[in-house]
């Protein structure tokens, strides 16, 4: 049976996180190059990717948010001629990172295909409401989705089933008629399953746990279409 709705994770599902970071690092090197000893954008991107860890941050970070951690790392671990305060770099990240978001290959085309087929679409993402919405707006996903549920707004983080249940309600589709597509085996796949959804794993960003229960797997977003058995009118 075709789903009534499909919910997607955002980072490393609809948005390619590392490619977005690489694009942002180029902007960072341009804006702060005169104040840096070394303006190698690849090294800047490597530092951000290290602290970002696929959007999940590093264990034991003393910072309340991932973006604060990244700003502090940029302030303290790059070689500065004229030092930059973490607060300045945090403001730069907030203002500029969404502008350099790179969509996952095939994301917009897939969303358009789902809408044309009458399948409701939404996004469920851990993170701040403002950053989630700005990423969606920047890439045009906001025009294609019925709802976007951030963990900040939901008051619950994936894999907590409450965030999935809220998204299903706002999508207007029972959870057992929803599919969920995401890259994280626990936060996305286990969480969606626990909420009663069919979970589809986008492989390539996290390892599947050795004791994980088998699930439908795709290697790229366009591979979702054959699972839906679309028929053209």
Question: Which descriptors apply to this entry?
Answer:
six-stranded parallel sheet; 233 residues; Rossmann fold
Oligomeric state: single chain
CATH homology superfamily of the largest domain: HAD superfamily/HAD-like
List unreliable stretches of 5+ residues: none
Structural class: alpha/beta
Instruction: Indicate the radius of gyration in whole angstroms.
Output: 19 Å
Number of strands: 6
The percent of residues in helical segments reads 40-55%
Main β-sheet, spatial strand arrangement: 3-2-1-4-5-6
Structure, described:
The protein is an alpha/beta fold and 233 residues long. The chain has two domains: 5-16 and 103-228, HAD superfamily/HAD-like (Rossmann fold, 3-Layer(aba) Sandwich); 17-100. 43% of the residues lie in helices and 12% in strands. The two termini are 18 Å apart.
Question: What's this model, at a glance?
Answer:
The protein is an alpha/beta fold.
Write the topology of this structure.
Blueprint: E1 5-8, H1 17-32, H2 41-52, H3 66-77, H4 86-96, H5 107-116, E2 120-125, H6 129-138, E3 147-150, H7 151-154, H8 161-171, E4 178-182, H9 185-194, E5 198-202, E6 216-218, H10 224-228
Helix pairs in contact: 1-2, 2-3, 3-4
């Amino acid at each position: 049976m075709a789903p009534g709705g499909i919910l997607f994770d955002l980072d490393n599902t609809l948005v390619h996180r590392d490619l977005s970071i690489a694009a942002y690092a180029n902007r960072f090197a341009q804006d702060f190059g005169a104040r840096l000893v070394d303006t190698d954008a690849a090294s800047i991107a490597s530092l951000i990717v290290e602290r970002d860890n696929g959007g999940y941050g590093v264990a034991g970070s003393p910072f309340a948010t991932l973006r604060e951690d990244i700003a502090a790392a940029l302030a303290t671990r790059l070689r500065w001629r004229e030092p930059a305060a973490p607060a300045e770099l945090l403001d730069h990240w907030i203002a500029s990172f969404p502008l350099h978001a790179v969509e996952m290959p095939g994301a917009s085309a897939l969303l358009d295909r789902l809408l044309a087929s009458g399948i409701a679409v939404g996004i469920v993402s851990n993170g701040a409401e403002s950053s989630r919405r700005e990423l969606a707006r920047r890439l045009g996903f906001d025009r294609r989705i019925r709802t976007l549920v951030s963990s900040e707004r939901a008051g619950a983080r994936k894999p907590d089933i409450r965030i999935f249940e809220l998204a299903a309600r706002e999508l207007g589709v029972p959870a057992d008629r929803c599919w969920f597509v995401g890259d994280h085996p626990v936060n996305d796949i286990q969480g969606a399953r626990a909420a009663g959804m069919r979970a589809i794993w986008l492989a390539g960003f996290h390892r599947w746990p050795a004791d994980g229960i088998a699930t439908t797997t795709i290697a790229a977003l366009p591979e979702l279409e054959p699972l839906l058995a679309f028929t053209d009118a």
